[in-house]
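Figure 3 (text version): structure tokens given as input.
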């Protein structure tokens, strides 16, 4: 068995290098697939070698950022950590995180593992190992043709939580769907959240998935919203309500940088948007719940640089480009909010594909509050990608004029050639890797 494991590790590492250096594609998924084919028990064996604890990071939005923040925070504390940093979060990608970190003898030297897991893949992954902690970011509607309604994902997560009776769930207490799921599963838990009104009011068109009580079906009453269904809620009939918050973000300032306090400790970051406050809270709650004092968390946060298209920054000549993944209505609305808070003159390229990983049903575009972009100047929005015509039609109904350019590289280059100083590029899944490569090459 050990010889098979060594061979699987070697084959996986060769596969990964071939994918990256010859085909110029991410090699994690294929590396994990090869390893599991050669040694089906390799993920179970390597996970068993993690010395202290395994974190699983799940949720609709924010998984990759939270997972990478948690990884960086643990490294800052002097721990040895493995992590699927590229966002390859299905079974093969998870296997690759362990296999590619193993040595030539097929052994792993790690104190912790931070593993982002696609919600629909958790049952496959949990069949190989049971994490000690799960960080649950939020639950929003996402890719209906892949996942179905939220109920289906909640059923999967409840099942895997109950299959790991010793797991502790660190969850977003401001999300009534996450709060109900944790309560319904019976798992040990700790909640993070924001207990003060930050934004003041939200767009009336914003979709609020969890506005009805999951216990009795009555519409929840809110003291205030943050965005989506996140906020201060209570059911007027059965009393289901926002739980007690162990890690509470307060004194929040949003601007060129974000600032806030947690338990008297002050944090700041160049990350943008209220959703980034939630991501930081999730990572901080995770490391503290695991028993670490997080003495170096502030510095880890200051040093943290987003990657893999999560509000990633590029400089191309005099143009600053922000690349961000936007794959569902809530994520898009938060990206729009960040853009509108930027007072500079800016341009926008939106790339929408409908490949299998994206979800072939793009009707969700009609739930994005694009109407908020009406205040932007004309000739500053270009739509691109396979479904650019559908996106252009959506913007037309929003009363917004846009340029049509199916080739995303041409769309980006056009704004740069015109001397644009600030450019936002919003993409869904399958465009992300290609656009990153384009921006890296141009930069």
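Below: residues designed for each position.
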């Amino acid at each position: 068995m050990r010889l098979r494991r060594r061979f699987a590790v070697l084959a996986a590492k060769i596969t990964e290098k071939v994918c990256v250096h010859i085909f110029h594609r991410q090699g994690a998924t294929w590396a994990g697939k090869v390893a599991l084919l050669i040694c089906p028990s390799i993920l179970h064996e390597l996970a068993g070698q993690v010395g202290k604890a395994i974190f699983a990071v799940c949720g609709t939005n924010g998984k990759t950022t939270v997972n990478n923040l948690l990884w960086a925070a643990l490294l800052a504390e002097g721990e040895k950590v493995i992590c699927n940093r590229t966002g390859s979060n299905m079974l093969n990608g998870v296997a690759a995180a362990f296999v590619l970190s193993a040595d030539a003898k097929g052994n792993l030297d790690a104190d912790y593992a931070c593993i982002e897991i696609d919600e629909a893949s958790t049952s496959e992954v949990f069949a190989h190992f049971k994490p000690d902690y799960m960080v649950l970011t939020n639950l929003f509607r996402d890719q209906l043709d892949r996942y179905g309604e939220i109920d289906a994902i909640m059923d999967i997560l409840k099942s895997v939580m109950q299959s790991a009776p010793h797991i502790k769930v660190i969850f977003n207490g401001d999300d009534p769907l996450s709060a109900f799921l944790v309560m319904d599963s019976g798992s040990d838990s700790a909640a993070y959240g924001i207990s003060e009104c930050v934004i003041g009011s939200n767009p009336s068109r914003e979709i609020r998935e969890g506005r009805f009580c999951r216990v009795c079906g009555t519409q929840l009453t809110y003291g205030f919203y943050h965005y989506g269904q996140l906020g201060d809620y209570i059911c007027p009939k059965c009393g289901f309500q926002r739980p007690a918050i162990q890690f509470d973000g307060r004194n929040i300032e949003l601007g060129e940088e974000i600032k806030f306090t947690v338990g008297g400790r002050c944090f700041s970051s160049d990350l943008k948007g209220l959703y980034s406050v939630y991501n930081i809270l999730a990572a901080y709650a995770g490391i503290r719940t695991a028993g670490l004092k997080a003495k170096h968390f502030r510095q880890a946060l200051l040093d943290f640089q987003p990657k893999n298209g999560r509000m990633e920054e590029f400089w191309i000549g005099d143009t600053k480009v922000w690349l961000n993944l936007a794959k569902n209505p809530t994520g898009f609305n938060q990206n729009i909010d960040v853009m509108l808070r930027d007072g500079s003159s800016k341009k926008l390229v939106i790339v929408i594909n409908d490949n299998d990983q994206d979800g072939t049903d793009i009707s969700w575009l009609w739930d994005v509050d694009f109407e908020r972009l009406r205040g932007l100047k004309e000739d500053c929005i270009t739509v691109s990608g396979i479904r650019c015509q559908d996106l252009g039609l959506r913007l037309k109904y929003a009363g917004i004029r846009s340029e049509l350019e199916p080739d995303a590289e041409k769309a980006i280059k056009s704004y740069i050639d015109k001397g644009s100083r600030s450019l936002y590029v919003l993409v869904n899944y399958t465009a992300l890797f290609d656009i990153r490569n384009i921006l890296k090459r141009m930069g």
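The longest strand covers residues 50-58.
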